[in-house]
Structure formats: C-alpha cells, structure tokens
Design a protein that fits this description.
This protein has 2 helices and 2 strands. It is of the alpha+beta class. Strands 1-2 form a two-stranded antiparallel sheet. It is elongated.
Length: 55
C-alpha cells in the first residue's frame, strides 16, 4: 500500500541488476569502459506511461 516504498525497492532492484551485470560480465564491463556499449536501466511508470532511465 506504500507506493513510494514500492517504487524505491523497484528502482533499487534495477540499479542492483545493472551493477550485477558489470560485476559478472567482464566483457560487458570492458566494452562499457571503452565506450562501446552502455548499460541503461529503466522504470516504466504505469500511471502516465513515463519511462525513467538510469545509467
């Protein structure tokens, strides 16, 4: 019932997943450091359809 808490947990999950990708894939981590790929997480807000991106 606490929407702010649920949003905070979901955002935290996205950011943690991005960090796990960097931590567990040396290839992607290297390509990201070289500027060849970019890891971008996002949240889709059901109310209004806004997409929020995280780098």
């Amino acid at each position: 019932k606490n929407e702010k808490y649920v949003d905070a947990v979901a955002i935290s999950n996205v950011k943690n997943t991005m960090n796990e990708i960097r931590k567990n894939s040396q290839i992607i981590k290297k390509l990201e450091k070289e500027g060849k790929v970019k890891i971008v997480g996002s949240m889709y807000h059901l109310n209004g359809g806004k997409v929020e991106f995280f780098e």
